[in-house]
Each structure stands twice: as structure tokens, then as C-alpha cells.
Design a protein that fits this description.
Chain A: Its main location: membrane. Chain A: Belongs to the binding-protein-dependent transport system permease family. Chain A: It is a multi-pass membrane protein. Chain A: Keywords: Cell membrane, Membrane, Transmembrane, Transmembrane helix, Transport. The complex is a heterodimer of chains A (256) and B (278). By secondary structure, chain A is mostly helical. Chain A has 11 helices and no strands. In chain A, helix 2 packs across helix 10 and helix 6 runs antiparallel to helix 8. The longest helix of chain A is centred in the C-terminal third of the chain and has 38 residues. Chain A is flat, with a radius of gyration of 23 Å. In chain B, helix 4 crosses helix 5. Chain B contains 9 helices and 10 strands. The longest helix of chain B is centred in the C-terminal third of the chain and has 21 residues. Chain B has 2 domains: 201 residues, P-loop containing nucleotide triphosphate hydrolases (Rossmann fold); 67 residues, no CATH class. Chain B has a 10-stranded mixed beta sheet, sandwiched between helices. With 278 residues, chain B is of the alpha/beta class. The chains are: A mainly alpha (256), B alpha/beta (278). The interface between A and B is medium-sized, with 23 and 28 residues.
Chain lengths: 256, 278
């Protein structure tokens, strides 16, 4: 019953919007605006053929490569910088500066250095989406509870154990919040990097459709990006629920 | 006169001054000059008005805070960091246990770091949880338990660590009176069974007399030893009979008087909590 109800909530509004769209485009003559049926046809025709392997899979691979890289670099550096106060004070202004650089401007630069390669795109994604993870990890490590730290010290936990069983879990809520922000940045940078220096990928395909006036196909590309973003956020929620089960339980107890 | 047994803990001329937080600020002298020794196997209570630097003293003894001056020795060796033979039970049980780990994992973590094998870890954590009457709580998370139960988990963690000296920093300040009485009896029981030296800090005069064999009274900040009282109550203590013993009332009154005197002599504005009638 409960599952059916939440499923209903999930599809109700999209269904209504699609219905309105369908009615509004019944007498449609503009070639710029697709009909629901036309878009669905274009979606399946365009993306479940050669383009699946040529554009969709490379894009998703770059996206995941970039996100994985951002998590590894962000959490790794964040643990290091957060653990040492002098290092943190030394690096903070520099990090703020790098963070302030709009990542898309790196596309031409890295295009020159790394060429029209996957490495270039993954580097752009990492550079843009690492900041929320890095800064949140630093803050999470810094804010580790003092009594928990004293406990770890007085029981003489080894350094790896302190990292694995105290610092990392204590910072996990902050780290996860950082990753959540990074996901949408990563998706944006994936598209941007593919739109300029690329010969494959969703961003490349959408630009190509637009230049050839393949308007329904262009729309369907936007739909694919939306669906990828949605899938990403759903997967993230599942992971977060597992990783932060203790945190959510604790908060529920504290609220009661 | 020589000590009957060699002291396990020596505190001599301990002084702790917290430096000024900012350039123009004032430094705070938490402890001026503390000297006392604790013989092997004794249960000592340390009382003092709130703000008397009790936690500072414990942190120094636990090796978590370097003293400004003075000598600290545990089993003949100077304390320079957290000693292996010491376990600490903190006041804030909710923050001392790791909420992301089960009760059993919390109890076993120090053993894991000490290199104790898996089978022995399980064995020791199980025994410790049985000793504190929480045999069935191993799979639960700390936040799923009541405050008193959480503090018992923290005690079990200390017990499983098998320390030779147990430091307890106002461990029952945040639990209700009923639970508190149970936990006091638990501490007496474990102390007798394990033969450890216990240093129990509290601001509660009744608790110190009920638990201790000896009570060290601290003065107000800046702290010195105000008095050192032997508690000559029978070893078998009971919440009802011990607390209604006339000697209990005498000792309580004596310590209360000392704390009042401490308040007057230092001229500080710290207040001593009033004692309810017996």
C-alpha cells in the first residue's frame, strides 16, 4: 500500500505535465517544439543504436571517472589538510582562489595540454567538482568531536584505526553532502567539455544535432541528460542511506 | 612512615596554566599546586566545587594534556602520553562512544588497536558486557540505548581493556538518580572483582563518600588539595544501610565543611551545591 502510494506520488505530476504538453502541441506547427510522441520516437531511434556505444557510454564513463577521481582526490586531500592545522591555514586562501576559477575556462587550456582526449574531460570534471568534496572533508575532519578524539587517544588507537574508525566516519555526513553537490557540477562539466573539444559524447551529439537542425534528436539528447542526472541522484540516495544509516538513526533519536 | 604499598600514581607539585587565547587576553591558572599519591588498588574519589579544575587534573593524569610544571608518575614511569595500563571513562558518554559502530565494536576497538586477536576480542567484549549487565546489547548502536546503558557500555569498554588504573570523570553526572545508584554499585563491584586502582572524580559529596575508601577534596580554582579524608566505612556498602550510617553523615558533613571553607578561603564566587537532607 505504502509503496503504491509513493509510486503514485512519483509519477503523478510528470504525468499531468506530459498530458498538458500533449494537449498544447496537438495543433503544433513549429518544428522547434516536439510533441511527446515525436520525442519518444526520436529518443529510442537516436540513442538505442550506434549512438549508444559511440556517445552515451563514453559520456557516462567520463562522468563516472570524473566523479570517482573527485571523490578520491577530495577525500584524500581533505583528510590530509584537515588533520594538520598549519597545513589548513597555509592552503585555505589558495584553495579559495582555485575554487573561484570557473572550471569551464579550463577546457580550452586543458584541450591544448592534453588534446581532445578523455583525460582532458575527466580532468575538467575533477577540477570542477572536487571543491565541495574537498572543502567539506576538511571541515568534517576539523569538526570531529573533541571527546571522541580524547577517547581515541586515551585508548591508544593506532593512526590507521583512528582514520578508519574515527575521522572518516565522523566526517562522513559532511563528505556525503559535498559529494551530492559535486554530482550536478560533474554532469554540467561533462557536457561542456564535450561540446567544445570532442568527437564523441552527449554534449558533442547535441551540438551536432543543433547544427544540422535535427531538432527532435537535440531534444532527446537533453532528455537523456536529465535521465542520467536523475539516475545519479537515485543511486546516490541509496548509497547515502546505507553509509549514513547510523547518522539518520542518531538524529531521529535526538529529535524525539 | 613508609607507605604500606608502593604508590601506583604520584602527583607532585602539579601546576597547569592555560595560556591566554589571544595576545591581550588573560592566562588561566587552573591548577596551582597539587600533590598526592594513590596506592595500588585503592578507590579514591576526588571532589571539588564545579570549576575546580577536576577535569584538567584528569586530563593531565590521562596523558591528554601536558602539565605546566610538576611531576606525574604512573607505576614509577613519568606520564608523557596516554599510558597503556590506563582506561578513562568520560562524563559525556554520548560523545565518547562512536555512534557509527555497534556496542560490541565500540568495546572491541581499543583491543583491535592493541593487536588482540579476533577470538579473544569477542571473548573479552562478551565478558565485559556481561559484567555490566548488557549481554544482549552487543548488536545495538549506542544511541539506541538509554543514557545509563550507554555509560555502562563505556565502562565495559574500559573493563575489556583490562587496565590497572581506571579514571572516571564525573561519569554519572548526566544520568537520573535511580540509574546513578545502580551504576555506583556497579563501580564498587567491578573495583572489588578486578582489583584495579580507581580514580573517581565527582562533584557530588554523597557519591564520593559512598564510593571511596578515601576522598581528596580540591579547593576552588586555582586548585590545591584542600583535604584528604579516609573513609572508614565498612567495605560492604549498600545504598540503604551505608547512607543511613551515622558515620556516613559525619564524613559527608566534614567534606561539605571543607568545600565551604575552600570557597571562603579562595574568595572565588563559585557556589557549592547544597546538600539535600538525608
Amino acid at each position: 500500500m505504502k509503496i503504491m502510494k509513493s509510486a503514485l506520488f512519483l509519477v503523478a505530476l510528470p504525468a499531468i505535465l506530459i498530458a498538458i504538453w500533449w494537449i498544447a502541441t496537438l495543433n503544433n506547427t513549429s518544428y522547434l517544439v516536439p510533441t511527446p510522441g515525436g520525442l519518444i520516437t526520436a529518443f529510442f531511434d537516436t540513442w538505442f543504436g550506434d549512438r549508444f556505444w559511440d556517445d552515451m557510454v563514453p559520456s557516462i564513463a567520463r562522468l563516472f571517472g570524473g566523479i570517482a577521481g573527485a571523490i578520491i582526490v577530495g577525500v584524500g586531500l581533505g583528510l590530509l589538510i584537515g588533520s594538520f592545522r598549519t597545513l589548513r591555514q597555509l592552503l585555505e586562501p589558495l584553495l579559495e582562489f582555485f575554487r573561484a576559477i570557473p572550471p569551464p575556462v579550463l577546457v580550452p587550456l586543458l584541450g591544448l595540454i592534453l588534446g581532445i582526449s578523455d583525460q582532458m574531460k575527466i580532468t575538467v570534471i575533477i577540477f570542477g567538482s572536487v571543491w565541495p568534496i574537498l572543502l567539506n572533508t576538511i571541515e568534517g575532519v576539523r569538526a570531529t568531536d573533541e571527546v571522541q578524539r580524547d577517547t581515541a587517544r586515551s585508548y591508544r588507537l593506532t593512526r590507521p584505526h583512528r582514520l578508519r574508525y574515527l575521522i572518516l566516519p565522523a566526517a562522513a555526513p559532511q563528505i556525503m553532502a559535498g559529494i551530492r553537490q559535486s554530482l550536478s557540477i560533474a554532469l554540467i562539466l561533462m557536457v561542456i567539455s564535450e561540446m567544445t573539444y570532442s568527437s564523441s559524447g552527449l554534449g558533442f551529439a547535441i551540438i551536432q544535432f543543433q547544427r544540422n537542425f535535427a531538432i527532435p534528436q537535440m531534444w532527446s539528447g537533453i532528455l537523456v541528460l536529465g535521465l542520467i542526472g536523475l539516475a545519479l541522484s537515485l543511486v546516490f540516495q541509496l548509497v547515502e542511506r546505507r553509509v549514513l544509516a547510523w547518522y539518520n538513526g542518531l538524529r531521529e533519536v535526538q529529535r524525539a | 612512615m613508609p607507605e604500606p604499598t608502593t604508590p601506583v600514581l604520584v602527583v607532585e607539585g602539579l601546576r597547569k596554566v592555560y595560556p591566554a587565547p589571544t595576545a591581550g587576553g588573560q592566562s588561566v591558572e587552573a591548577i596551582r599546586d597539587l600533590t598526592f599519591t594513590v596506592p595500588q588498588g585503592q578507590l579514591v574519589c576526588i571532589v571539588g566545587p564545579s570549576g575546580a579544575g577536576k577535569t584538567t587534573l584528569l586530563k593531565c593524569i590521562a596523558g591528554l594534556l601536558p602539565p605546566t610544571a610538576g611531576k606525574l608518575e604512573l607505576q614509577g614511569k613519568p606520564i608523557s602520553g596516554p599510558p597503556r595500563t590506563m582506561a578513562v571513562v568520560f562524563q559525556e558518554y554520548g560523545r565518547s562512544l562512536f555512534p557509527w559502530m555497534t556496542v560490541q565494536a565500540n568495546v572491541e576497538l581499543p583491543l583491535k588497536s592493541a593487536g588482540v586477536g579476533k577470538a579473544e576480542r569477542h571473548q573479552r567484549s562478551h565478558e565485559a558486557l556481561v559484567a555490566v549487565n548488557l549481554a544482549d546489547a552487543g548488536e545495538k548502536y549506542p544511541w539506541q540505548l538509554s543514557g545509563g546503558m550507554q555509560q555502562r557500555v563505556a565502562i565495559a569498554r574500559a573493563v575489556a581493556y583490562r587496565p590497572e588504573i581506571l579514571i572516571m570523570d564525573e561519569p554519572f553526572a548526566a544520568v537520573d538518580a535511580q540509574t546513578r545508584a545502580e551504576l555506583e554499585d556497579l563501580v564498587r563491584k567491578l573495583w572489588k572483582e578486578l582489583g584495579v586502582t580507581v580514580l573517581f572524580v565527582t562533584h557530588d559529596i554523597d557519591e564520593s563518600v559512598y564510593l571511596g575508601e578515601r576522598v581528596i577534596v580540591l579547593s576552588n580554582r586555582p586548585t590545591v588539595v584542600q583535604d584528604d579524608v579516609v573513609i572508614d566505612l565498612p567495605a560492604e556498602r549498600d545504598q540503604l544501610t551505608t547512607r543511613s550510617d551515622p558515620r556516613f553523615a559525619e564524613l559527608r558533613l566534614k567534606i561539605y565543611g571543607e568545600i565551604q571553607r575552600a570557597k571562603d578561603t579562595t574568595g572565588d564566587t563559585m557556589t557549592v551545591r547544597t546538600i539535600p537532607a538525608a
